[in-house]
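ok so i was messing around last nite and threw this chain in just to see what happens. nothing serious, just curious
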Amino acid sequence: MGTSTLPDALFGSIQYKPITSSRRHHDPIQFFAVKSHSTIYRRRSGGKRVLFADACLCKPRHVVLSSMDDSTEALTDFLDDGDDNSLGRGKVVGIDDNELLASRKALSDAQARNETIEKERDQLLEKLARSEAKQKEYLSTIMHDKDLAISELEAAKALFNRKLEESVEEKFNLESKLVLAKEDAVELAVQVEKFAEIAFQQATSHILEDAQLRVSAAETSAAEAAFQIEEQLRTGSEGAITYVLQQSKDAIEKALAVAESAGDHTTNAMAAFVDNMDQVDEIISVQSQNLKLSNTVNDLESQLLVYRNEIDRLKLELKQARKEAKAYELHANDVEKLLLEFQESSRKAALQQEEEIKSSLERMRKDATEKKKAASKAFKLELGRMKAAIEAAKETTRSQDEAYMRRCEALQRSLRAAEAASKTWRQRAEMAAYLLLRKSSSEEVDEEAIYCVNGGRIDFLMDDDSQKWRLLTDGPRRPTPEWMARRIRSIRPRFPPRKTHVPEVMTSGFKTLDLPKPDEVWSIAQEKLKEGDALVEHVIEKEVIEKKRKALERALQRKTVKWQRTPEETKLESGTGTGREIVFQGFNWESWRRQWYLELANKAADLSRCGITAVWLPPPTESVAPQGYMPSDLYNLNSAYGSLEELRSCIEEMHHQDLLALGDIVLNHRCAHKQSPNGVWNIFGGKLAWGPEAIVCDDPNFQGRGNPSSGDIFHAAPNIDHSQEFVREDIKKWLNWLRNDVGFDGWRLDFVRGFSGGYIKEYIEASNPAFSIGEYWDSLAYEGGNLCYNQDAHRQRIVNWINATVGSSSAFDVTTKGILHSALHNQYWRLIDPQGKPTGVMGWWPSRAVTFLENHDTGSTQGHWPFPRDKLTQGYAYILTHPGTPVIFYDHFYDFGIRDIINELIEARRRAGIHCRSNLKIYHANNDGYVAQIGDSLVMKLGHLNWNPSKEVHLDGTWQKFVDKGPEYQIWLRQ
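result:
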């Protein structure tokens, strides 16, 4: 609209009176108050006019007022509606006093109403400014959230792609493993067939050889018997005949000699008879000798008859021996027939076994084929689900982008609408202020001349309707449509559901990840330092935020480990576990006073997040002492720590958090339930109702009737005789019950010094624990009250016990604990032996050394051998970075305020990949400090020694300081 100048006469009758609005952030609003009896027009930007006709003028003249901007009012145009006469020729009409009073009263009311409107307008403008600021802040927050969400979705997309690649690679690995397994199965079947054939041949050959040996032995024995009988007959008959012949010959020779001598005598006698008759007596004597000789011959004949009878008897015996030999021969024929029948049956059994092996191989092939099909099907399903998840993630990303764009557009539209509405409301408020503040003391408004071309907004503003006042106060609102709210609520990622079909889970090889909630991740990721004046506050806040992020990183790392781990990670040995165990002693000496199993179950998730792998639980059995180390009824697990159901629930929670549950087992002694007739407590009750025969005989207090003890005597309770077979069988059944029914995974064995380690080996082989630790605790060597440097004898005794178990159990490294008591007081030279190795069991057998600083006996409320309180962090820095299996004590972790330090050391051990067999090289060990490299990726320093791996020539690579506790300890990791 153009601007025209007003005549001087008009300016003579118009008084300029500026009126300043009380609005903030705007220029003062100025109005013209016109005293002339003329008609004034107010022109809007759209060209609409409001006419106020002066009844006292003969011809109406018009002055048009227009708004130049949001803050000022000025005269812009002057128009004449049909008369060229100047304004100076208007007539002045008199006004009545009553009308003037009424006008003044109306004016005062209008002024009061105007003040109210001004206040309301100021409030409205303040609210409008605040709403604009909030809208801008909300817009910036939305844009930031959008960028953050896009980055998170990109990261999720990259993670999905990486997981997909890993799954494809794993599928190929599984297929190759399946092919190798199939080949191994075929080779195994061939070997089984060969072994069966060899075994059959060996069995039949052994049987044939045995039968032939038996037959040959029978024949040999029969031949030997016949030969012996014949030899006896021959020797007997030959001897008898020889003897008879010799006797006969001798007798005949004697008789002949006698006869010759008699003949000679007779001849001589006959010759001399004539000469001398005195020879008659000699003839008579010769006759008597002949009679004697005849008697001798008769005796010889009778003896010969006796010998003939003996020969007949021997012939009968020979005949009987031949019959027995024939019987032996028949028996040998029967054995040969049985052997042939056995060979036939063995051949048939071998054929049947071969058929069974072939059928089993066929079943194995079918099962392998079915498993392969099921695995491929499961993999395809999983791949399809992952693809669907990726598509869903992409669709979600697009939907979120579209939703964000729509929300941004809606916000922009609402901002534009709000700006236009605020401008409109400002203009209306200015118009209302102008109309209400206009002085009309000498004017009379022609009601009929007021017409509205703006939709009646002036009348609308002045109405008392509550809805109109609410609109005036709050402005127009645009609520969020329901469809938009539903769309916003429906935007969430769609991932594959968890598998509930057990065979599908077992064959697929995949496991749904149980990741932290996005809100938790975002809240930690978005944490920033608060504004403060003190630098210390910034440092503390930064450390807190870094600890939270490290804890989240550890949790994510543990949750995203593949379900099918490598064999070296999953292989469990009773002496070492997986080799990467970190044990937590989950009780102290006073834990029995509370419902301990319930409390410990609630801490399982926290321990798992911190990197603990095994939890050592208190003794579970009924006990005379509440701590559990004086057991009575081994099968009663309702102890002071809780009931059997609570124990099982606690162990289940440990397993749910991927933790091993180690039971504290007391096998050396047991408290009796009854007294013997002589008043000695040596009769046990419960399911294992033993008597004095189960107690060692050299236990001086309990009158045992067993064998002598194979170790040291525990004098507070009856010592069990493990050499008794029934005792060992009962203990094996009890340990298997604890493993299979209650759920324990391994053992902590109490007071193993009381009996031989060979029995421990037998118990471990029977119960097959995942991890086993023995408590072999005796005193170190001291001289003059000071700890000796050489502790080889002490650690040799522990190693000897481990050797007795054939390495099936590890043992607490009491030697290292005792040496650390003194070494950490600026005597670090104690940590290296003459061979350059650690001075404890760790130096000789690290895989079986379980290192610790305190337990329920040395610390807690007993305090038999407490570790120096000010050296705890150094001690944990030593055992958590060195080989062996470290143990963390409950009080240190939860009560001593060093939990974050221990978590940091566990993280360093995990990142460096340290395990129980890691290599160790000690570089320095003197009064100033100790430096060692463990594995390939970690170097640690204790004490005040000035040392840095980056300055060492033999330590190549880039080393970054991971932990820096100044003179206490420092840890570097290789990049």
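not much to say yet. The chain has a mean pLDDT of 76.
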